[in-house]
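Final report, Chapter 2: Outcomes

The project's central promise was a pipeline that accepts a single protein chain and returns its three-dimensional structure in a standardized token representation, suitable for archiving and comparison. That pipeline is now operational. To close this chapter, we reproduce one record exactly as it appears in the project archive, with the input sequence first and the structure output second.
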Amino acid sequence: MDGIKLSFPPESPPLSVIVALSLSAFPVTIDSSAAATTVPTFVFSDGRKLSGTTVLLRYVGRSANTLSDFYGNNAFDSSQIDEWVDYASVFSSGSEFENACGRVDKYLESRTFLVGHSLSIADVAIWSALAGTGQRWESLRKSKKYQSLVRWFNSILDEYSELLNKVLATYVKKTSGKPVAAPKSKDSQQALKGDAQDKGKPEVDLPEAEIGKVRLRFAPEPSGYLHIGHAKAALLNKYFAERYQGEVIVRFDDTNPAKESNEFVDNLVKDIGTLGIKYEKVTYTSDYFPELMDMAEKLMREGKAYVDDTPREQMQKERMDGIDSKCRNHSVDENLKLWKEMIAGSERGLQCCVRGKFNMQDPNKAMRDPVYYRCNPMSHHRIGDKYKIYPTYDFACPFVDSLEGITHALRSSEYHDRNAQYFKVLEDMGLRQVQLYEFSRLNLVFTLLSKRKLLWFVQTGLVDGWDDPRFPTVQGIVRRGLKIEALIQFILEQGASKNLNLMEWDKLWSINKRIIDPVCPRHTAVVAERRVLFTLTDGPDEPFVRMIPKHKKFEGAGEKATTFTKSIWIEEADASVISVGEEVTLMDWGNAIVKEISKDEEGRVTALSGVLNLQGSVKTTKLKLTWLPDTNELVNLTLTEFDYLITKKKLEDDDEVADFVNPNTKKETLALGDSNMRNLKCGDVIQLERKGYFRCDVPFVKSSKPIVLFSIPDGRAAK
């Protein structure tokens, strides 16, 4: 893509193409002196040309390497994108402008992006068409007429603010809405660069990758649920497969029957689907057990492997000290005899393992005769008691990778010292080599990603299961209130970096807030304990109901019925800071003046009385109070907050997890909620005014059973 020049009429810069080039960090040179050019044109280094705004935009969409799904990841999405790209021209028609705004506004009521779950050239085309109208669109942005459209427009502008503001300042004249002539200085090139490279897509290439010929695999061990660390590996496989028009295989590395189960397989498949991973097929390492056994025997016959009955602790010491095993020079016949004992699972066989014959003095200890096979008489979750021996990961993984046609195996950098071993195993087997690509393991503060340690929490009953909202599993963080879209953005922003970082959760929850805040409904809750009754002496003698928006900036959230009564409930924390004669604002109602405050013997406020002052200005009051009507329609709530499971930022390998267990990880607060919350469904995300964001875990069933809401972190520093 090097050597491309963009030329266009100076008075008519193609804004959507320039924006797409900017977002994708697409290498291009702008020729702003091409006065004779009548349409936007790409001129390639070999003299070929492409012309027309939509043609160029689609070319950038297809060619951009830094933005995932920029032109969709399947034929249907790409076709939808084409529709929106073509539709963008309607905004330039003066008479149709507002009709077009109305159509897109309605379409975006329940969507973050126009197509799919990430930014595409469809968004670029419509966004640029609006921005290009200058003052006309700016006036509408300030009104409340097209709230979903404005939300969408602003979210894109916020996400890429520095870059887009440069483009707008360079190419759009706000007063008239007409494009300005392209500048002749280097500023035009700088406007294309900005910080697009930092906007979170992998920036490196797979070595020796060819378009259409890349085959990857995501190979989890079915010994636990998918967690956020696995999600990084899965999404990077997805990204590279789409980028190189290749495919992904899901393979279960089921070689350890002591840890694995069908429950884990089923939930891993479920979680992979939740992440939106499209895979070619599902395979199992156990599918290849016969071939793996044949290969082990072949290597023994060739003198490249041997059977060792050295006790495990002694074997580990010999490997550390670089001492050859006494079994290393067994004859082929002796090795095959013991191999048969292993296959039979006999008492003698249980004492043995198969090892590769490498170099016991190699400085890289991973190359000191690694174990290939072990005896294990346990039943396998998938194939029962057919086998008494099982291959190790180090033996099975390169074999199956090569056999399944994997071109690139993505592995976290913790395997770096075993890369040479991987290549040596394939060399001894005489199989096709596979490219290894490393990325850094995702490490988060106060977070366990070891399945062994997570299993310990499950087995000790310190959590409710693998989907506990305190767990870093995909099911756990989704239950906590994280949107998968936020997780995908977060992972891709890390890219394929090899740098090892201990990351805070704040960044992830901040991304999540940007997604949920513009659309989630607002409700009201009052902590039940020591709540205070506030009597408005001139309040309504009979309760009345008024319909108000659930979200003042997003009509798509719908409306809620709010009851207004003479007596209302407020929280003790609010009541305790109010003074006699003070004017306060009752949210969604108006101002009131406190006339009397009653307290108990301990000085706690027990009741308030006052009068309404609905003509008062909310700008002059210090306290803005949430409140609930004194009716029997209120619902009972349990507001649940969570903390980290461990007290140390990063556990070392030799740390005992039991020594760092946080004794206080769950806090439940009883509260009352507005009657509209009876309609919440499990999984609904809401904002409780002045309390934060919550996800409904247990919806309303009956009055005696509270609705359970889980607090969703918002990315701000912990209290």
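Archive annotation: Residues 58 and 121 are 7 Å apart (CA to CA).
This record, like all others produced under the grant, will remain available to the consortium after the project formally closes.
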